[in-house]
Design brief:
Elements (H helix, E strand, L loop, with lengths): L2 E2 L5 E2 L7 E5 L2 E5 H8 L7 H7 L1 H6 L4 E3 L12 E4 L1 H11 L4 H17 L12 H35 L6 H6 L16 H13 L3 H31 L3 H20 L4 H7 L1
Antiparallel strand pairs: 1-2, 3-4, 4-6, 5-6
């Protein structure tokens, strides 16, 4: 359910995807996402609130601050990942109209994630909050993989130096550490199964993209049918001439045999 924030903007409600269970081995929520749910006019203002209450928050658990990697100019700011107790504490200090509602949501979401409680039925669409959470998770995985690969390559380079060998960057890059196994081939599907799968993916799109997806699907089908007709016409035009001549000769022979077999044709031919 969406609600109106103090800045007059509509905000998506918190969902289970906002809780990241892979940060320091326990469920946490991003400070900016909590600020959006609380209705902060400027979500980054929650970091000032965190600094004012840092001592109390540290008593509720270690504060997890990370610096995202951002390309381009500008110094990236530290983002904070809050535990359930820290998030609830900040809700009580936020003094926004949605503070009580968000406090209840935080408790329910964290309990659902940690206790395995059944989640409420979700609509078959990806919300903007879901996409943002997926994007944040993908960036974090990419950063972790980059750091792990860099550490492994540095270790290999140092090992070669200790053995008195020259460092060949190309060979170091070729042997990637813990390279994942090749993915199995996709399962074979009939045309009907492929269409059903495509329709399911289209229905899972947000409403603003779903109609465009169906339009593109119909356009692709029309284009495919036109290509099939063009292929058939091209094959007919490019048939070898000797095959065409053979067909015509065979048809002419059948016509001559038919004429010769008609009564009275043979006698008339002799008199002539």
């Amino acid at each position: 359910m969406e609600s109106m924030g103090d800045n007059g903007q509509i905000m998506p409600a918190l969902s289970p995807t906002d809780i990241d269970i892979a940060v320091n081995g326990e469920p946490r929520i991003l400070d900016l996402r909590l600020a959006e749910a609380l209705g902060f006019g400027r979500p980054r203002d929650i970091r000032q609130l965190i600094e004012r209450h840092r001592e109390a928050l540290e008593r509720l658990g270690g504060i997890c601050g990370t610096v995202p990697q951002i390309r381009g100019r500008g110094r990236p700011a530290t983002e904070f990942w809050l535990t359930k107790k820290q998030a609830v504490y900040l809700c009580t200090k936020a003094e926004t109209e949605r503070a009580i509602t968000v406090t209840i949501q935080i408790v329910e979401l964290f309990d659902a994630v940690t206790g395995g409680a059944a989640h409420p039925a979700l609509a078959p669409v990806l919300t903007r909050a879901d996409l943002d959470a997926i994007d944040r998770r993908a960036r974090r995985i990419g950063q972790e993989e980059e750091q792990r690969a860099r550490s492994a390559l540095i270790d290999r380079a140092l090992d070669r130096l200790r053995r008195g060998e020259r460092i060949d960057i190309a060979s170091l890059s070729a042997a990637r550490p813990d390279e994942p196994a090749a993915l199995p081939p996709p399962p074979a599907r009939t045309r009907e199964e492929s269409m059903d799968l495509a329709l399911a993916h289209l229905r899972a799109l947000p409403p603003e993209l779903r109609q465009e997806g169906f339009r593109l699907m119909h356009a692709i089908k029309a284009h495919s049918d036109a290509l099939k007709e063009l292929k058939a016409a091209t094959e007919a035009i490019n048939s070898p001439l000797d095959i065409i001549a053979e067909i015509l000769e065979r048809e002419a022979a059948v016509i001559r045999q038919t004429i010769a077999a008609q009564p009275g044709r043979a006698g008339q031919g002799e008199r002539a």
